[in-house]
């Protein structure tokens, strides 16, 4: 999601963070549809809050020395190489880099390309950058959304390693900020749905699906709750698909939502509660005493 301009000065996030997708980086943003939903839905009033908050969070991560443990590349099964794409105006050979293996697989599945995922430790980035430059890859995109026409292209050059941490921190801060807004909207609507006899349940599910499809695919509790809501909505196809997505996160997430209709009331309540707590704890939205008590499953990729 293209969000920033001139991010990489002094190893910190500077005043170059100008908007959530409104002010476009010259020559670096691809947008095949200027009327895309992502642009139409942005509320300019949000920017006064979003830009300084994202900058604060990103700088906090950089100052604390946080960094990704690993990065992921989508692999094209047809040529057994890293998946890349060409852009025009300007002509660039763009590599796709992901911060989650689940996000990489979602990209391949969504664009209907057979392939897999290659994982490498973050410390190996300089070696990989050299390989990419020799292979003629001159740009990269971080966590390319397969459902949106917009993306931020970053040049691969001698500064890529030092710039990457800043880009990652801003990307992570922005993603978490947007995720938290959607989670708040989801719970606010659930409260309203209770007083409205469930009339707004489908809209609540829409917030979760937006989070999954456009912000952060790699949160298992989102898939878990979508499966529950799809079952309540009488949408078996969406329910089964979400259960399959959930179970791809490993054995800890198998059997959380039954595929048939055997969910007894107590088990249903326990499942919803566990998923809600997991979702809130993922984005550190619980009270401090509950946050420390919550045991979030370690998702390695």
Q: What helical percentage do the residues reach? A: 40-55%
The total count of strands amounts to 9
| Number of helical regions | 10
Query: Could you tell me the mean pLDDT?
Result: 80
Overall 3D geometry?
Answer: globular
- Helix and strand composition category: alpha+beta
**Rg over CA atoms:** 20 Å
Order of helices and strands: EHHEEEEHEHEEEHHHHHH
- Terminal-residue CA separation: 20 Å
Give the strand content. Answer: 5-15%
Q: Main β-sheet, in a few words?
A: 7 strands, mixed
Tell me about this structure.
The protein has 301 residues and is α+β, with helices and mostly antiparallel strands. Among the domains are: 70-160, Trna Endonuclease, Chain: A, domain 1 (3-Layer(aba) Sandwich); 176-293, no CATH class. 47% of the residues lie in helices and 12% in strands. It is built from ten helices and nine strands. The strands form two sheets. Strands 2, 3, 4, 5, 6, 7 and 9 form a seven-stranded mixed β-sheet that branches. Strands 1-8 form a two-stranded antiparallel sheet. Strand 4 (84-87) and strand 5 (92-98) form a beta hairpin. The chain is globular and about 60 Å long. The protein starts with 28 loop residues before the first strand and ends in an 8-residue tail after the last helix.
